[in-house]
Specification:
By secondary structure, this protein is an alpha+beta fold. It has one domain. It is built from 1 helix and 4 strands. It has a 4-stranded antiparallel beta sheet with strand order 1-2-3-4. It holds the Pfam family DUF397.
């Protein structure tokens, strides 16, 4: 995987109190997730496209 993510965007489900995450994508398609409060200085979770799809599917299924 890579650490070269770009086009970071904050989740639309973020809380106004700063409890939020950002999602970015690398040129190889890897998806990165990081804590917005750390301004890029903290760790980044990395997912392949398939892992990301599975992750989102399971989150959405759990919320119903």
């Amino acid at each position: 995987m890579t650490g070269d993510f770009h086009h970071w965007r904050k989740s639309r489900h973020s809380e106004p109190n700063g409890e939020c995450v950002e999602v970015g994508q690398a040129t190889d398609g890897t998806i990165g997730v990081r804590d917005t409060q750390l301004h890029g200085a903290g760790p980044t979770l990395e997912f392949t496209r398939d892992e990301w799809r599975t992750f989102l599917h399971r989150i959405r299924a759990a919320s119903h």
